[in-house]
Design goal:
Distance between the termini: 48 Å
Helix content: 55-70%
Number of strands: 4
Low-confidence stretches: 586-605
Structural class: mainly alpha
Number of helices: 23
Radius of gyration: 26 Å
Shape: globular
Strand content: under 5%
């Protein structure tokens, strides 16, 4: 059967696949550039990659984004290298840098479908794809540049290639095995969640299946992994194991936390159930602002927590039934490829659960951690839907359709609400209750930050005085990037300092606060030395234009400098620096990369 005959035979399947994927693509791309999330972590990555775009590829670092807070512990540089290619192809702009995440998110849609089709029927697979395409959780994490956001794609690619590599009907298992090694090598450089879980899943699966590859295939796999990790190896040799020391320190820190075994198991189970359902439905109010605590399930708590009990109980039922069906069918399935799919899914669940148990120490598991298992909650749903047998009769089909439509409606409604928040962010005091979904529930977009930067630039253009401003650390690097694009040079930080008795006479001073978090204390910290000349709202951000009071404006000399973030970036080991002895590195090259408030601290494992 040739290619066109296959298309003709599966034309309706392809039609629905295209329609469902188109829905997912629309949600991921709608006003992508205007509503881009571009804050401290994104500016950090942008400047690192931009240095390579403007100054040559040799300026790419040997290590990747940070983990563990601060700017110390790092994984491999795969994400930066992908972002470099993205910037080359789509432009050295925040939107151009984010295209890697967007494209891989779009590619994950058909990849998810062919992955679940290895076990489920066309009908169930199409329903699961609709859930995957419209998932609020997956849509939000697809719309901005951040290293963990590519994990759903690489998880699917890694495990799909792994299944193909052990299939007895596969014509090219060796090629698929090497694709799996390549995908796994990239995945483990993206986030520590993948670094610890994916190798355990893959190795255990291979031990169970015992594939008979030639020695040269294993040799090629080792070579691929060596090439992928060569920047890390070279960096460790050059820095005498600096990153490894940070890694050991982080493990020692985590190991210091101890909790009751039963309580910890109960809490981690709740987190898994609630976050699984979040991925399925977009319901972000199950945890809300009262995360799972003790054995109560929300019973022994205040009314705001108790009100979530009616949804928490069904969610736990879904979770336990899905897990039970996964293990039961893994044991009872005899067909080779379906058996492999279930074994792999079981290992995926077991090792991710054990990992979350191991890292759970401070009464919270961030929602982004579940990016490594994001397809799994939908697979559990598929196992439950399979018991309905939607092909059996019209009644079963109706139940199946109602469940899928209900989940799609729940997600789509929340996506529209989210888009409405983003669209109004520049004019309305928007602060959505989405802490369970997104790393920051304040609605601040690149478009909005540009308006604030333009406002500061307008004051600068009238007098050409240097600009100083104080803002939350999430926004300051973004605003400085936007100001630099208008030729406004950075001079110095502007901190809250009531004791400071002097200011520059010829300077523009600003305070940038979240509108709904401005307190009198914040402004009064500056009142001894500054007067408020103008206050201007930009929706969820408010800008104050200040002027030094008479007698305080007694400083004249102002020396241009570079931001703390840029100083830290100078300390990264790059390919260009390999030929330079460590003794020739500048002070900033050696030490300015230590823990500072320049990170949101949200890249923790």
């Amino acid at each position: 059967m040739n290619f066109f005959q296959k298309i003709a035979r599966h034309k309706w399947e392809l039609f629905f696949l295209v329609v469902i994927c188109a829905i997912g693509i629309m949600f991921r791309t709608y006003n992508h550039n205007k509503w881009l999330h571009f804050e401290v972590d994104q500016t950090w990555d942008y400047h690192i990659v931009s240095n390579a775009i403007t100054g040559g590829i040799g300026n790419l670092p040997l290590l990747g984004p940070t983990a563990g807070g601060g700017r110390s512990l790092r994984l491999g540089p795969a994400f930066y290298y992908m972002e470099y290619v993205s910037a080359l192809l789509f432009g050295n702009t925040p939107a151009g840098h984010s295209m890697t995440v967007l494209i891989l998110s779009i590619l994950s849609l058909p990849l998810f479908y062919i992955f679940v089709r290895r076990y489920f029927s066309v009908l169930i697979s199409a329903g699961l794809l609709l859930t995957f395409s419209t998932s609020l959780y997956l849509v939000l994490y697809a719309r901005f540049s951040w290293s963990p956001n590519v994990l759903p794609f690489f998880a699917l690619l890694t495990f799909y290639a792994l299944l193909r590599s052990v299939s007895k009907s596969e014509k090219h298992p060796r090629i698929w095995f090497l694709i799996m090694v390549l995908a796994a090598g990239i995945s483990t450089q993206i986030h520590f969640n993948a670094f610890f879980t994916f190798p355990a899943i893959i190795i255990t699966f291979l031990i169970i299946k015992r594939p008979k590859f030639e020695l040269k295939t294993w040799g090629a796999a080792i070579f691929i992994m060596f090439v992928l990790y060569s920047p890390v190896i070279i960096n460790e040799i050059k820095t005498r194991g600096e990153d490894l020391k940070y890694f050991v320190e982080k493990l020692d820190k985590n190991a210091s936390h101890r909790k009751n075994f039963l309580e910890k198991t109960f809490l981690v189970t709740q987190y898994n159930a609630y976050e699984y359902f979040l991925i399925l439905s977009g319901n972000d109010q199950i945890n809300g602002f009262s995360n799972p605590d003790g054995y109560s399930l929300g019973i022994a708590c205040k009314s705001t927590c108790l009100s979530r009990l009616p949804i928490r109980i069904p969610v736990l039922i879904y979770f336990f039934i899905g897990v039970f069906l996964l293990f039961r069918r893994t044991k009872r399935e005899f067909f080779g490829e379906k058996k492999d799919f279930l074994i792999l899914s079981s290992l995926w669940f077991i090792f991710s659960f054990l990992y979350f148990y191991a890292i759970y120490s401070s009464n919270i598991l961030f929602p982004r951690f579940f990016l490594i298992v994001s397809p799994l909650p939908i697979i559990l749903l598929g196992l439950i839907l399979e018991t309905i047998c939607p092909q059996k009769n019209k009644a079963s089909l109706a139940i199946f359709s109602l469940i899928i439509a209900g989940l799609a409606y729940s997600n789509t409604t929340k996506i529209f609400n989210h888009f409405s928040d983003l669209g109004n962010a520049a004019t309305t005091e928007t602060s959505a209750k989405m802490k369970d979904v997104f790393p920051n529930n304040k609605r601040v977009t690149l478009e909005q930050e540009q308006l604030v930067a333009n406002y500061m630039a307008s004051k600068y253009s009238s007098n050409q005085y240097p600009v100083y401003f104080f803002s939350d650390h999430e926004y300051a690097p973004s605003l400085w990037y936007l100001l630099s694009q208008q030729g406004i040079q950075y001079f110095d930080e502007f901190f809250i300092s009531p004791e400071k008795e002097a200011a520059y006479a010829k300077a523009n001073y600003f305070l940038i606060y979240r509108t709904n978090q401005i307190s009198q204390k914040d402004v009064s910290n500056f009142s001894d030395n500054f007067s408020i000349i103008e206050k201007k709202k930009f929706g969820s951000l408010t800008a104050f234009y200040l002027a030094p009071k008479n007698g305080k404006d007694n400083l004249a000399k102002q020396t241009p400098t570079i931001t703390t973030q840029q100083q830290q970036i100078l300390g990264l080991m790059t390919w260009n620096k390999l030929a330079r002895p460590i003794s020739q590195q500048t002070i900033s090259d050696e030490s300015e990369i230590s823990n500072t408030p320049e990170t949101s601290g949200e890249d923790l494992p």
